[in-house]
Write a structure and sequence with these properties.
The chain has one domain. Helices cover 21% and strands 22% of the residues. The chain contains three helices and five strands, in the order βααββββα. Strands 1-5-4-3-2 form a five-stranded antiparallel beta sheet. It is elongated and about 65 Å long.
Length: 134
């Protein structure tokens, strides 16, 4: 898995501001996760937002583990040729890093970090919102 972005949402509702009234990296990332979760309802936004941790002394770089539920796509039924209904879900996640200067990154541990335009594209590239096996 690899991911990264340098854009931030202009619609974010950052509640975590520093003493100068500037949105912190943690606050911006939390707002971005909430924005994505409003579209990709499979995201566990509560767990994901709680996972945000500072990586730098001033909190200008943060990390988080964004978690989502997947529903495996089962092979079609031979009689109906339509996919069967299933309640089987799995949990997947991606660990990412965010800073205003570096944007969104992930996959650094595997040595294959990439750049994406948004948190949404990072999540989609890592399988969030995509039926497993599709």
């Amino acid at each position: 898995m690899s991911c990264s972005s340098s854009s931030s949402s202009s619609s974010s509702n950052c509640d975590d501001v520093d003493g100068a009234g500037i949105c912190t990296a943690a606050g911006e990332l939390a707002a971005q996760i909430e924005d994505c979760a409003s579209v990709l309802t499979c995201i566990d936004s509560e767990v994901s937002v709680r996972s945000i941790q500072p990586l730098s002394p001033r909190g200008s770089t943060v990390t988080a583990c964004v978690t989502w539920r997947t529903t495996p796509l089962l092979p079609p039924s031979p009689q109906t040729r339509t996919p069967p209904m299933t309640n089987t879900t799995e949990t997947q996640s991606v660990t990412l890093r965010f800073s205003y200067s570096g944007g969104f990154t992930c996959g650094e541990n595997s040595g294959s970090a990439s750049v994406y335009e948004s948190l949404m594209s990072l999540l989609l590239a890592n399988g969030c919102g995509v039926r497993k096996g599709a």
